Amino acid sequence: MAKYLLLKHYRGAPDSVNNVPMDQWTPQEIEDHVQYMNDFATRLEGTGEFVDSQALSPEGTFVRYDGQGRPPVTDGPFAETKDVIAGWMVIDVDTYERALELAGELSASPGAGGKPIHEWLELRPFLAHSRRSPSELMDELLLRELTPAVIGVLVHRGVDFATAEDAVQEAVVQAALNWPDRQPADPKGWLVTVAWRKFLDAHRSEASRLDREVRVAVEPPPGPTETADDTLQIFFLCAHPSLAPASAVAITLRAVGGLTTGQIAQAYLVPEATMAQRISRAKRTVRDVRFEEPGDLATVQRVLYLIFNEGYTGDIDLAAEAIRLTRQLAWMTESTGDDPETAGCWR
Question: What is the pTM of this model?
Answer without folding.
Answer: 0.36
